[in-house]
Amino acid sequence: MEKQVLTKVEPVYPAKAKADGVSGQVVLHAIIGKDGRVERLSVVSGPPLLTQAAIDAVRQWVYKPFQLRAQPVEIDTTIAVNFSLAR
After folding, report:
1. What are phi and psi of 57, to 5 degrees?
2. Domains and CATH numbers, the chain
3. What whole-number distance in Å separates Cα of residue 85 and Cα of residue 77?
4. What angle do CA 19, 25, 31 make, to 5 degrees?
5. Over the stretch 16-32, which tens digit does the pLDDT of each residue have?
6. Can you give the pTM of this predicted structure?
7. pLDDT per residue over 34-63, tens digit each?
């Protein structure tokens, strides 16, 4: 799926998470619409301080539309967003 992303917005690291030293991975369940835009997102797992930043970024992603038998289709997928504090 990563190769299908046409527009990828990086998440903004929340100041509170940085201050508290929180890092990790946020896993989101997503429905990608026929037009390649993210239609629905829900959190599967991840640090609570990072989930909203991940959602806000991924909502802006645009994928190359998926096709099945030359027809655009919705895709059900999982997206992982990694947050890492620079050392």
Report:
1. -70, -50
2. 2-10+24-83 (3.30.2420.10)
3. 27
4. 125
5. 999 999 999 999 999 99
6. 0.90
7. 999 999 999 999 999 999 999 999 999 999
